């Protein structure tokens, strides 16, 4: 049995939506919302924060690819597209919009479970990569601040590079503040004293 993922589904045809919901519930998923157009699905996903949005491409107001782009860029939810269209241009647009998987109709119910599981795994990988990138940017920014603070200590207190670094490290441990915070304080003090 699949883990109880919370899904929002969108298709402009209510009969297709009803069948899709029945299939998804039968597979063990929880359908927490339904929409008939792209604008509604974006608003619903913003409100409900589902684990996955499953939607058609051809919808009124905002097509599924444009909606997917919003949901992906705003980090609201991953998107699995279901569509009768498989031409190269649509597939390319879907890829560029950040869609995590794509199924061509008519599909068998058995194809839905692996497509959803793969979509969720891809999305988890993207989130992990995003976090790692954020952590690396934070580390790099901290390193730059510490380097600048070392320079200030070397200039103002006549310290050697290693001594300046050790002083920042010592202040960090003694005050239970991060080296970043200590570096920022040193740089701020240097600005005030100019």
Automatic annotation (TrEMBL):
Response regulatory domain mapped to chain residues: 6-120
GO BP terms: namely: phosphorelay signal transduction system
Q: Which UniProt keywords apply?
A: Cytoplasm, Phosphoprotein, Stress response, Transcription, Transcription regulation, Two-component regulatory system
Which organism is this protein's natural source? Kouleothrix aurantiaca
Q: Show the InterPro entries listed in the entry.
A: ANTAR, CheY-like_superfamily, Sig_transdc_resp-reg_antiterm, Sig_transdc_resp-reg_receiver, WH-like_DNA-bd_sf
Tell me, in one coarse class, where this protein mainly resides.
cytoplasm
Q: Which Gene Ontology molecular-function terms are recorded? A: RNA binding
Annotated ranges, domain ANTAR:
126-187
Q: What is this protein called?
A: Transcriptional regulatory protein PdtaR
List residues modified as 4-aspartylphosphate: 56
Q: Which SUPFAM superfamilies match?
A: CheY-like
GO annotations of cellular component type:
cytoplasm
Question: PROSITE patterns, per this entry?
Answer: ANTAR (PS50921), RESPONSE_REGULATORY (PS50110)
Where would you find this protein in the cell? Cytoplasm
Chain's role? In addition, the PdtaR/PdtaS two-component system controls copper and nitric oxide (NO) resistance downstream of the intramembrane protease Rip1. This coupled Rip1/PdtaS/PdtaR circuit controls NO resistance and acute lung infection in mice by relieving PdtaR/PdtaS-mediated repression of isonitrile chalkophore biosynthesis. Two signals are required to fully inactivate the PdtaR/PdtaS system and mediate NO resistance: a cytoplasmic inhibitory signal through the PdtaS kinase mediated by direct sensing of NO and the production of PPE1-5', an NO-induced small RNA, to sequester PdtaR.
Phosphoprotein found in the keyword field: yes
Is this entry keyworded Cell wall biogenesis/degradation? Answer: no
């Amino acid at each position: 049995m699949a883990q109880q993922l919370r899904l929002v589904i969108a298709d402009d045809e209510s009969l297709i939506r009803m069948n899709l919901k029945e299939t998804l519930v039968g597979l063990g998923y929880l359908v927490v919302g339904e929409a008939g157009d792209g604008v509604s699905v974006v608003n619903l996903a913003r409100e409900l924060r589902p684990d996955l949005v499953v939607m058609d491409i051809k919808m009124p107001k905002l097509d599924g690819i444009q909606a997917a782009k919003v949901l992906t860029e705003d980090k609201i939810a991953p998107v699995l597209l279901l569509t009768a269209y498989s031409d190269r241009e649509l597939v390319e647009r879907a890829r560029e919009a950040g869609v995590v998987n794509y199924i061509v109709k008519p599909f068998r119910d058995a194809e839905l479970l692996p497509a959803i599981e793969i979509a969720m795994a891809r999305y988890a990988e993207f989130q992990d990569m995003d976090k790692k990138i954020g952590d690396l940017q934070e580390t790099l920014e901290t390193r730059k601040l510490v380097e600048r603070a070392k320079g200030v200590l070397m200039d103002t207190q006549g310290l050697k590079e290693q001594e300046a670094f050790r002083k920042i490290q010592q202040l960090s441990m003694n005050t239970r503040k991060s080296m970043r915070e200590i570096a920022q304080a040193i740089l701020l003090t240097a600005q005030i004293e100019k």
